[in-house]
Amino acid sequence: MSSWSRIGLPPRSVLAGYTLTRRDAGRTALFEAFFAAAWFGWGQAAPPPWLRGWLGAGLVAALLMAVAGGVTSIRHRTQTVAVSDAVVGQRYGIVVGIEFGIAALGWVVLAVAGQPVFIPAFVCAVVGLHFFPLAPILHDPWLPMLGTLVTAVAVLAVVLHATADVAPSTVTGAGAGFLLSASALVKLLRRGRESLAAAAAG
């Protein structure tokens, strides 16, 4: 049974049969860790004093993972990457473009409406939701799980702001930062183990 079947998703990827490479893992880890660092930084806008140090540590760790992802991608630069396919690259660009467009529009609307406090939660929700259409494009069956968790963080941020007066930027910064960092780390470690196994088998 494929990973797609296990999580209830149809194998709709345009990369049917494609095996993600070390370069894919490095590029993905680079992007996820970079944005994790951005979320940790945004989380420091209005956190409780006890959390500021943890957010700073998360930011540094995320940047180190981004560097590791970049190095991995460079070391395996002769390997192919999913987005090098013309169709995949086009679809990827469309999804990311829509994501940034909606996030920017929501940012402006909330700012004009006098509700800038909710901007982090809105952007977090958009980020989480964009992982769903990316999953079949990049042939990554675990992106829907990441998308669900990141979107849940956005909802939690709104709830905690309403019930406990916690700044949404604090919740989204810590939550999205942690989830994206964890995803980046898993991709680096998983592909590393697979490479070692393949070398041993050879």
Q: What do you see in this structure?
A:
- The protein has seven helices and no strands.
- The chain has 202 residues and is mostly helical.
- Helix 4 runs antiparallel to helix 5, helix 5 (119-138) packs parallel to helix 7 (168-201) and helix 6 runs antiparallel to helix 7.
- The model is unreliable at 1-15 and 195-202 (pLDDT under 50).
- The chain has one domain.
What brief labels describe this structure?
mainly alpha; 202 residues; disordered N terminus; single chain
Task: Summarize the topology.
Layout: H1 3-6, H2 22-42, H3 49-75, H4 86-112, H5 119-138, H6 143-164, H7 168-201
Helix pairs in contact: 2-3, 2-7, 3-7, 4-5, 5-6, 5-7, 6-7
What's a quick, concise take on this entry?
The protein has helices at about 5, 20-40, 50-75, 85-110, 120-140, 145-165, 170-200. It is an all-alpha fold and about 200 residues long.
